[in-house]
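## retry 2 of 3
previous attempt timed out at serialization; input unchanged, resubmitting
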Amino acid sequence: MKPEPPAPGAPGAGTAGPREPDRLPGRLHVFLPLLLVLVFALYAPVGYHDFVNYDDADYVTANPRVLGGLTWENVKWAVTAGHASNWHPLTWISHQLDCELFGAAPGGPHLTNVLLHVANTALLFLLLRELTGSFWRTLLVCGIFALHPLRVESVAWISERKDVLSGMFFMLTLWSYQRFARIIPGPGSRRGVWYGAALCFFVLGLLSKPMLVTVPFVLLLLDLWPLRRFPRGAKLRLWIPLLIEKTPFLVLAAGSCVATYLVQQEGGAVSVSLPLGARLANAAVAHLRYLGKLVWPLDLAVLYPHPGSWPVGMVSLGVLAVAAVGVFAGLLFWRRPYLFVGYAWFLGM
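## retry succeeded, writing output
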């Protein structure tokens, strides 16, 4: 995507120049609604689908605290319970709200997931458009995000509400952060308001799904590009304020990690059957396989069983792929920074 000048007020960046004017002002009002209608039309048939026998019983159909709807007692349970080896109170509350509005039928929860995915597509489009100034590339990226088969599981599976719900707060966190980063510091600048909004949305995201613990590092990636708050050749002392900014996010992420580990350990979901070496080997293979499925989404499944040990050749190929793509993106960083940022984002999240 097209890089922008350094963010105003960023350490060592100076003041950013004006945005490039949009040559086709009306295209946003045409192509974005068309994309959103297409996304809704693609996923709307799930409203006629049933529950599945994989986690849906724990989350809805056999969970009296969810089927009972949005009551004070059920909300207290959502906040304090580690049911299904997870602590994500906001996700439980969203399921309770579904039952309050639609009863125990699956159609309502399915359509809620669809609407959240449509909203996430719109938020991603507006975020990338704001960050990069590029319309068509943003539209392409959002189309891949919204319509790629790898997204189906999160949208069409009621138990994966936590994914689309946390995704919404993730987008809002990034939106608020980039607004904060672009404002020149000074009296009445409202930088603190946007920073506080980013923190609040981050907390709501963690309360939906703890996968968002990597967000502080995503914010640092955005500082690299497209916000360009790490100027080339800057002294280390100019980086310190940017790192300090992330401290509250890191503290919240660490707290979420601890809470998740304790809840999953109590629920028997922490596996000790595989040594560290086997886990690292699996990470290398999974990296390679997901890159492949991004290009050619074949043999998709809800669960990919671990074979116990991967062939040495496949592990070596996975490690080589990680290293090769990483070196390639790193060498092109100053010319094509989005390659490095995008790949690091993919690896981290």
